[in-house]
Amino acid sequence: MNSRDTASACTHCGRDLDPAWKFCVWCGARVIPEEAAPEPTPRAERHLNPAAVFALVLGILLSPLAIAFGHVALHQLKTSDDRGRLVALIGTVLGYASVVLIALVVIAWIQLRVPV
Ligand SMILES: [Zn+2]
User: Fold this and answer.
1) What spacing in Å lies between the alpha carbon of 12 and ligand 1's midpoint?
2) Where is the DUF4190 domain (predicted)?
């Protein structure tokens, strides 16, 4: 088999190269392969659990729903490979914190409004 047609010249010394060579035998220069090495496939993005995001958003807006969705998300994340455990936890904690804060505000408001 004649590989002359596919052989290329060394970019360093200009002499003919065998396609099988990784280095030029004449000058030692590295032969650039015709096919570039395949890019390493990026790790597949893990899905962000929607209930976890929902819990975080609701944790700021509607705390009781945040607690509910936070627990749903945390339960789902136990059995799935989804990301978002931290998001779900933050949402749930924010939900509880908001409930406590609202309760304190209501209690304070009642204490101020109702004379003892
Ligand atoms: Zn060469």
Assistant:
1) 5
2) 52-104
